[in-house]
Amino acid sequence: MNPDSNEHFYAELPLQRIPLPDLLSDKKLFDAIPADWHVIITDIKGSTQSVLGGRHQDVNLIAAGSIVTVLNIAFGMNVTVPFFFGGDGATFIVPASLIDKLMQALALYRANTLANFNLELRTGTVPVAEIYAKGHHINIARFSRSAALSIPIVLGSGLDYAEKIIKGDDYLMTGHKPQLEELDLTGMLCRWDQIPPPENKEEIVTLLIIAKKTEYQAEAFKKVLQKMDELYGAPDIRQPISVSRLKLKTTFSRLGTEMRVRLGRIKWFELVRTWVLSLYGYIYFSTKKGKSYLESLVEMSDTLVIDGRINTVITGSASQRVSLQKLLDSMEQDDEILYGLHISGASVMSCYVRDLKDDHIHFVDGSEGGYTKAAKMLKAKLNK
Asked: Is the model's pTM score more than 0.70?
């Protein structure tokens, strides 16, 4: 098959606007990823120890930077790729026409990350055909979560299989050499301070859920999401980001960290210039256009990922979370799911902004390394 013939497979999927539990109930609305596509996974090795050591901001920024690296290349080639933010890394499903260029860019990004932050970013890829040959599946749908944002929903064990291979001790990296040209991380902005829960909310909950049996994955996820709707209300009600709680953080230290992720080094003239320009943000966000951007920022915050497991950041009261945990504990006892959970007092957000009007997305995690700490809890259960 010509590798270019299906490179728009994902973009051409119908956009599903029905409630998410209903989507999960109808497997006919999911399509298998083409066998000649590839899964790419980025992951910071030893991220748990880095987070425990207080480096959760660095971990989040580097994970977000790997997404920006991939999306800028895909955008330049007019290809839409599904991707999934995981706090300490990301997952992508890409056509064959992009794989070499993306892996070369990620190889350079990996080298920059090691040199500037002394953190090792694993960057691996597994052909979808190999995943299918091992009996795993990757079935995908495009889900419209709001008028402005659509997200990929994946069922099957294929991405989990790819992750286990790439994170395994005996996995051989792809051997792609770093690209020669400078990395393009245009649009990477990480200038928001930690974000407290919205008014009348008490806490931020970061939650990871896997199904014990892949064949009952959709049913288990539907059960959890319906309970969340019942306890917390609709997704916009449990949204952890709110305009009133947003606060810019434009210190030299924060901007310098962002610059090292983007450029691999500090350019002092540009750092001062960026700091001066960032001061304009305080004025811009008080204008009509600025307020409109902040409202769309909330709407386009990536707080739910379903990539063969549920990854979500929500807000609510302690009593709501206790009620949710009762269901999760019961489902664990019945061998339906395993889960990891972290409770914090704030969210953290990294941003990818191509256009202030309608082309931006914001990656959300619980503070103090929410996804990483939830994953630690989940791994402990898996290793029992």
From this structure: yes
